């Protein structure tokens, strides 16, 4: 009886603590190479590999397969990185410092100690483009990267400074809406890192909206509720306070005319106009042609297909990843009711 109770206790404890398994495959270049697993606890250190983040390593076999497993990770979601590179094992400290490896392929994802994830190899021998997971939050950071690339494509259509300012505000709202709907503050912090980065073109817009946008305070509340003991909460609060000190201050008018009575209604009208424009764009009216249902990004990629460019050539031309190109092409197929490049060229080549 006592032995049965001990076994039951052990099984229950195992189920409660969970056990993770992350597995996948790397391309030919990295067969028999070391694959690294890192824990990213500072969202400002998510852009590259840091030595102090590496928590586990394994070796891909002759076919490129690798796996990580155990039960030592956090039971709550955390940001992890999996990567492989061209560094020599004999001197890992020297070769990994400041990302001096000859080649590096990596992927950020969200996971907990109880998750099973796989990273399948793409048909073009490209690794870390897709995540299959038991955790619905795992691929959120990959979706954020796709949003960034869409933003880059979108800005190609904007030339004037005023149009760029309005476009920044539109994309800020889009990123923040995505983050809030994700129900995962870690994904929101990843977005915040991008929008508030002082080296990015987004920084001035971030500073301008920081004092009046309630989103940032609401994000803090969501973080405190879901990750109350995380160091990221303290880091976020400190950065908000520092940036608020740099943000433009509201000025009072001594002439008897308060600018806010003019600026706020105008800004509200602009937002209404933008909202109406995007509602029309997302829900095309009756009688609209099939081609007009494509977004501007999808139309650019379709034009590239009509020019005979491959996925890699399209990705290089627009400075986006091959996986993002594939996502756009799949969307084009669905909207046009077609299933191949040949069908697209047959149906639309003569009309372009």
Q: Which key terms come to mind for this protein?
A:
8 strands; Arc Repressor Mutant, subunit A; Immunoglobulin-like; alpha+beta; disordered N terminus; 3 domains; 13 helices; 352 residues; 48% helix; 4-stranded antiparallel β-sheet; 4-stranded mixed β-sheet
Report what the structure shows.
The chain has helices at residues 2-17, 92-96, 140-155, 161-182, 185-195, 203-209, 215-226, 231-246, 260-282, 296-306, 311-318, 322-336, 341-348; strands at 20-25, 34-40, 54-59, 65-70, 78-85, 104-111, 116-119, 132-133. By secondary structure, the protein is an alpha+beta fold. The chain folds into three domains: 18-138, Immunoglobulin-like; 144-250 and 260-264, no CATH class; 284-351, Winged helix-like DNA-binding domain superfamily/Winged helix DNA-binding domain (Arc Repressor Mutant, subunit A, Orthogonal Bundle). The chain has a four-stranded mixed beta sheet with strand order 4-1-7-8, with no helix packed on it. Helix 7 runs antiparallel to helix 8 and helix 10 crosses helix 12 (322-336). It is globular and about 60 Å long. Mean pLDDT is 82; it is low at 1-16, 251-257 and 281-288.
């Amino acid at each position: 009886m006592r032995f049965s109770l001990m076994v039951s206790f052990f099984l229950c404890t195992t189920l409660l603590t969970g056990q993770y398994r992350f597995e996948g495959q790397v391309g030919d270049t990295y067969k028999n190479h070391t694959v690294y697993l890192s824990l990213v606890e500072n969202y400002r250190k998510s852009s590259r590999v840091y030595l102090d983040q590496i928590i586990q390593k394994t070796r891909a076999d002759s076919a490129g397969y690798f796996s990580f497993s155990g039960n030592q990770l956090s039971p709550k979601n955390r940001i992890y990185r999996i990567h492989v590179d061209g560094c020599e094992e004999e001197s890992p400290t020297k070769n990994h410092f400041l990302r001096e490896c000859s080649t590096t392929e990596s992927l950020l994802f969200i996971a907990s100690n109880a998750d099973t994830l796989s990273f399948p190899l793409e048909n073009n021998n490209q690794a870390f483009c897709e995540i299959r997971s038991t955790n619905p939050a795992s691929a959120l950071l990959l979706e954020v990267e796709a949003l960034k690339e869409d933003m880059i494509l979108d800005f190609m259509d904007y030339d004037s400074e005023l149009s760029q300012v309005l476009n920044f505000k539109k994309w800020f709202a889009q990123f923040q809406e995505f983050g809030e709907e994700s129900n995962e503050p870690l994904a929101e912090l990843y977005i915040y890192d991008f929008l508030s980065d002082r080296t990015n073109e987004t920084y001035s817009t971030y500073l301008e909206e920081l004092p009046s946008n309630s989103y940032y305070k609401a994000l803090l509340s969501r973080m405190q509720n879901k990750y109350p003991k995380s160091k990221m909460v303290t880091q976020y609060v400190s950065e908000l306070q520092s940036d608020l000190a740099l943000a433009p201050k509201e000025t009072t008018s001594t002439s008897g005319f308060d600018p806010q009575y003019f600026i706020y209604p105008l800004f509200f009208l602009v937002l209404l106009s933008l909202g109406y424009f995007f509602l029309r764009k997302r829900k095309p009216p009756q009688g609209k042609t099939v081609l007009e249902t494509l977004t501007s990004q999808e139309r650019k990629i379709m034009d590239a297909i009509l020019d005979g460019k491959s996925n890699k050539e399209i990705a290089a031309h627009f400075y986006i990843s091959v996986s993002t190109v594939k996502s756009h092409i799949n969307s084009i197929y669905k909207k046009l009711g077609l299933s191949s490049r040949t069908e697209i060229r047959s149906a639309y080549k003569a009309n372009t």
